[in-house]
Every structure is written in structure tokens, then in C-alpha cells.
Amino acid sequence: MNFLTRLLITALVAFGLSYLLPGIHFDSLVPALIFALVLALLNMLVKPILTILTFPITIITLGLFLLVINAVIILLADKLVDGFKTDGFWSALLFSIVLSVTTSLINSSSTKE
Fold first, then answer.
1. CB atoms within 10 A of CB 46
2. Which keywords annotate this record (predicted)?
3. Which of 27, 43, 60, 92 could, after both became Cys, cross-link 83 (CB 3.0–4.6 A)?
């Protein structure tokens, strides 16, 4: 599946989750599309650096600290994208978990076809 399709899926899922999860707010679909692009860039550029810097903590927590890194990436996207707001760390953590699981399920089911 190509990059633009994955961005569109992420944007639509994130926008839908803003109606289901407390603490996540999008003004419209356009900020959700921008959010998906910013999230992809942050995951490509910032997440590897954070993962390397926190490698000892990640080992000690058996990988659970990666959830914290994902929440930090969501909070960074909150600061960079106008029209997207999270109410705090716990909202970002829950949003990152549900967003990751949902988009993974959609992407894996669409590649089997």
C-alpha cells in the first residue's frame, strides 16, 4: 500500500477517534490530514532518536517505554499542528495505542486482498 493511502487511513482513523476518545480534538478533517503527515515525519525523524536515547529504560521496562515515546510523539504533533489538541499525556497515550492498533489492523487487512 502506498504512502498516501496510509496517510489518508491514519487521518480518517484519527479524526474518527476524536469523536470516540475523550481528550482528543480536531477542528475539521484538514487538521487530521496535516496531523497524519506530521506524525509520519515525527515517526521517521524523532522517534528513532528517542528510542536510541531511552534504550536502557526500554530494556528495563521490557519495551513498555515505547508506549511513552509514542505518547510524546503525539504531544509533539499537538504542538505543531493547528486544529489538533490533546488534553494531556494520558489522553495522548490512549490515543496513540488505539490509533496504532486500528491503523495496523486496517493496513494488514488491506494488504491481504
1. 14
2. Membrane, Transmembrane, Transmembrane helix
3. 27
What is the sign of the dihedral through the CA atoms of 95, 101, 106 and 110? positive
Give dist(CA 88, CA 10) in Å, integer: 21
Whole-angstrom Cα distance, residue 89 to residue 68? Answer: 9
Q: What 3-state class would DSSP assign to 112?
A: coil
Tell me: the pLDDT tens digits for 39-87? 999 999 999 999 999 999 999 999 999 999 999 999 999 999 999 999 9
The neighbour count for residue 107, using CB atoms within 10 Å, is 14
Other Cβ atoms closer than 10 A to 15: 20
